[in-house]
Protein: Tetratricopeptide repeat protein 16
Amino acid sequence: MPSFSTTVYPETLGSSSIFKTSEFKLDRCLNGTCIIKDKANTHYGAGMEAVDQLEFENAVTFFTKAITLQPEQTQLYVVRAEAYLQLCDFKSAALDYKHACYLDPQKKAYFHRLAFVYYLQGQCYFDLEMFFEALNYFAKAVELKPGFRPYHMRSLACLTALGRYSDAIRMVTNWLDSETPSTDLFTLRARLHHQLNQHILCYYDLKEALRLNPSCPEARALLEMMAQGAECSRQQAVTRAVEGDLFDALRRITTALEMNPENAQYYLFRGILYRRLKDFNAAIEDLTLAVEFTDDGPKLPEGEKPEESKDLERDAHIQLVLTYNDFAVHCFTQGFYSEAIMLLNKAIHEQRDESRLFINRGDCFFRQKQWHFALADYQQAEELDPQNTTVWLRLALIHNTLGLHSFENLNFQKAADQFSVAIKYNPEKLDPANDELVPLLLRLFPGCSLSDVISSGIAQTVKTQLMERIQTWKLEGLSVSRLFSKLESIVLRHDMDSQSKTDSESREDVEVRFKPGEYTQDPIRSKEQVSEAVKKLLYQRQSLTFTGPRIAQLSNANNLEETACTSKRPYTWRNFGGMGLNC
Structure:
C-alpha cells in the first residue's frame, strides 16, 4: 500500500487564509487586481484593433470580455455601443449607452449619443412605414435632446403620416409661441390647416408668412391655389342660385369665403343670398363686411378708389339698405313696430333720398298711433317724390285721422282744416257712392242742409280746386261733371225725403208762391225738419271712435311691388300695406 504524506499545507485547505498574515493577503489582492486590470486592458486593446480592421463582431466579443472583468468601466460600454452601431444592432447599442448614462450621469454627451441611437431606430421604423413605433423612438430622442429641431421634425412627420394633424398643429404652434416666428413655420402650419380643410386658418397663416417674407414661393403657390378654388366655388354658387337652389348656393359661396375670406364680392353675394332666405342678421353682417373690405381695398395715388371698387361699394350699400328694409317689413308683419322703426332708422341713415323708406317708417309710426311722426315721414316722402300717389293716400289717411281726433276734442275748425287737406290728397273721399259723405257733411255743418252746403261760396271754391285735383289724379270712369251731378241729385233727393216726412198740414205751405228774390220758411216746418235731422243723426251717425281707414281705395293706384319690378332698378323695395290702401 502506498504511503501518503501527512503533512498539511495551508495553501491546499479552503480555510487556509486564516493562516496567512495581513501582509500576505494585501500583496495577493494587489496582484489579483492588477492581473484583472491588465487582462481587461488586453481585451480592450484587442477590441480596438478589431475596430480598426472593421471586424466589429470580434470587437464586440473582446469588449464584452473586458466588461466582464471590469463592469464599472464606462468607456467599455461606450466603445461596445459604437461597435453595435456599426453592426446596426441599435437595441444593444441603446442598452450600452443607457448603462453608460447610469454610470456617469454628468456626461451630457452620452445622453445625446443615446438620443441619436433612438433617432436611428425611429428612422428605421419610419422607412418600414411603422409610423407609430417610429414616433415612439423619435419622442424618446426629443426627450433626451429637446433643443434639437430635426428630432422634432421627424416626430412631426410621423404625426402627419398617421393623420394626426391636430397634434402636429399643436406642436408647430408651441414652436411659434416659444421661438421667433418664421416664414417656414407659418407655411408649415398653413399646410397642416389645409390638410384639415381649415381654409380660413390656412389663409391667414399664409398671409403672415408672406408678411415676413413676401417672396416665399411655397406660400404664394398655396395662396394662389386657394384663390382659384374659391373662384370655382363662387361660380358654382352662382349657377345654383340661378337654378333656385339657394341653400346649396349658400354652402358653396361659404366655401369660397373660407378660401378667400377678404373678398368683398363674395360677402356681397352671400349677403344677398341670406336676404333672400330671410336670414337678415347674417345678411347684415356679411354686407357690412363687404363695405368694410371695399373701404380697405387698394387706393389710387390720388386717394380715389378704382371704378370697379366704387361700383362694388355702391352695390353693397344698396343691398344693406334693402336688407334693413326687408327686415323692418318682417318685424312689421309680426307686430314689432319699435324694432322695425330702429331698422328703418339705420336704412335712412345709409340712404336719405329714398321715399319708400320714409313711407314704411311712417306706417310704423301710424300703427303706434304716433300721428305727428307719421305725418312728418309722409311729408318727407312727398318732398322726395311729389307725384307718388301712394304718398298722397297716406297723407289723406293721416289728415283724416287727425281731423277725427280734432272733431272728438270739439276743435271743429281744426278738424275742418284737416279734412280739407285729406280731401285735397284724396278727392275720391267726395265720391257720391261713399256712404260716409252725407253723415260727414252733416257733422261738419250742423244745422245746415246739404243744399245749403253745396250752394255756398266756399263749396264753389272747393269745387274748382277739386276739379283741378281730380284731373291730376286722372280718375277712370268718373269725370268731374258726373261726380258733381251725382252729388246734386243726392242733395235734391235728400231734401225731397225730408219734405215728405212732414204732416199733411204743411203741404199747403209748399204751394205758396214767393216773389222772385224772396226767401221765407214756415217756423213749424223748419222745426220739424231740424227734429228729423237730429233723429237721423242720433240713430244713423257714424261712431266717432272708429279707427279704421276712412278713405276709399284708389282704383288705379299702382302696387308698389309692380312699380319696382317694372323699373330699371335691379332691386325691389318692399312696403307694409295692410292699412286700407291699395299699395
